[in-house]
Design goal:
The protein is an alpha+beta fold. The chain is built from 15 helices and 16 strands. Bound molecules: adenosine-5'-triphosphate and magnesium ion.
């Protein structure tokens, strides 16, 4: 093990790159707020039991991917493998169902941990932007979420987005489909992967979701859940499609979408893009009308989605989309001789006035100070030599336009604003 190597499947965000994350976060916050969602923050770890009950013990996540450990008090703890269960737990713990419904919340940049085989777009720690809406049974909510994700991603510049929707029914109609699917798969079990042979017994729906190509081949002609929906689920799915059509976004009914979590009912959806390495799901979600009750609350419908930030960034990179890089430094104060005292005070004054300002901390020569200012992309320099110091002023220079002004210290912040605005 290398001390200077992050654990496999994790990634740092370097100071020079964090603006890209902040840009995404800003856009996501605005998109969520525009639809009436407010932020929730829940702990990075929860009691393991929450995920066993919430996510479902036949899922890949619970069977293979959770970071579970005993804490020093001998409690079983798990690092969040997804965002919804924690949100539901908090919703119940704080009696949010007693407030006006629907209760709309989002989480941003939530670290999610899954023990997966690391590869492109697949990390052991990734981050999600997720929305959850509690209390609303209507398909307009499902549509609202799909539209929000779609519009957000397209406005960021992601092209090639394919909106895939499906309905996996409810406990009333799904058992019939399970039966049909099992009958269909019965003769093919031997050709399925080891995981799917297991899924066949415990949760046949999940076979449809398997990423192994030979399994995908086997389920090509599988019966569709959509032919088995009860009246209520069928009407719900119909209304969802009506909403999306009304909004004018392209979508595809794809009966292969079943999602990897047990809690879904009715609507499931994925936003998929095609990249050079193949299809990439950037956002997945659906309705989970029974989860609140399953976790101990009164029955309450809900719907949500999760979007992987790393995957969004990967797509933006892949498409060559530039994220605006904010300026690191408005003004770099350079000084001659021992005028560091004036320089130090000026930097302080400028920072207090909300201007990003810096100075040399390395004992550099004046020439080297200018070189450094240039290197960090400072918009202006403010130079203090004997003459300037005597006049209580600094000579400000716009690095790009070469415009120069002698500016009294007291007017420095105002001058910086004027001289940087002009560009
Ligand atoms: P996949 O089918 O790719 O394994 P999933 O169905 O397990 O995805 P979800 O549980 O729906 O994924 O998570 C929501 C989103 O989080 C995904 O659409 C994806 O953008 C992102 N995501 C999931 N797992 C990872 C991972 N291991 N690394 C990076 N991003 C991930
Ligand atoms: Mg997965």
């Amino acid at each position: 093990m290398m001390l200077t190597q992050a654990p496999r499947g994790t990634r740092d965000v370097a100071p020079a790159d964090s603006y890209r994350w902040q840009y995404l976060e800003d856009r996501m916050r605005k998109a969520a707020a525009a639809a009436g969602y407010r932020e929730i923050r829940t702990p990075v770890f929860e009691h393991t039991e929450l995920f066993l009950r919430g996510v479902g013990d036949t899922t890949d996540i619970v069977q293979k991917e959770m970071y579970t450990f005993k804490d020093k008090g001998d409690r079983s703890i798990t690092l969040k493998p997804e965002g919804t269960a924690g949100a539901v737990r908090a919703f119940l713990e704080h009696n949010l169902y007693a407030d006006a419904l629907p209760c709309k919340m989002y989480y941003l940049n939530a670290p999610i941990f899954r023990y997966e085989a690391p590869q492109s777009g697949r990390l052991r720690e990734h981050h999600q932007f997720g929305l959850e809406c509690f209390g609303a049974p209507d398909a307009t909510t499902d549509a609202e979420l799909i539209l929000l994700a779609y519009r957000l991603l397209s406005s960021l510049g992601v092209s090639n987005l394919s909106v895939n929707i499906n309905s996996i029914g409810c406990p009333k109609c799904r058992p019939l489909y399970h039966q049909k699917l099992k009958t269909f798969l019965a003769g093919k079990v031997d050709s399925l992967c080891a995981d799917c042979r297991n899924r066949f017994e415990r949760n046949p729906l999940r076979v449809l979701d398997c990423k192994v190509p030979s399994c995908q081949e086997q389920v090509k002609d599988a019966p569709s859940m959509l032919d088995c929906l009860c009246e209520e689920c069928a009407a719900h799915f119909e209304k969802l499609q009506q909403c999306l059509t009304l909004a004018g976004i392209p979508f595809r009914v794809n009966s292969r979408i079943v999602r990897g979590l047990d809690y879904y009912t009715k609507t499931v959806f994925e936003l998929i893009t095609t990249t050079e390495q193949g299809n990439l799901t950037v956002c997945g979600g659906g309705r989970y009308d029974n989860l609140v009750e399953q976790l101990g609350g009164d029955p309450l419908p809900a719907v949500g989605f999760g979007m992987g930030l790393e995957r969004v960034l990967m797509l933006l990179d892949g498409e060559g989309i530039e994220i605006p890089r904010p300026r690191l430094c408005d003004v770099f104060v350079t000084y001659m001789g021992d005028h560091w005292t004036e320089a130090f005070s000026l930097v302080e004054t400028l920072r207090a006035a909300g201007v990003s300002a810096d100075m040399d901390h390395m004992g550099r020569s004046l020439k080297a100070q200018f070189k450094y200012a240039n290197k960090i992309g400072a918009a202006l320099t403010a130079t203090i030599g004997d003459e300037e110091a005597a006049a209580g002023a600094a000579k400000m220079k716009n690095m790009e336009t070469r415009e120069e002004r002698l500016v009294p210290f007291a007017e420095a912040a105002k001058a910086v604003r004027e001289m940087t605005e002009a560009k």
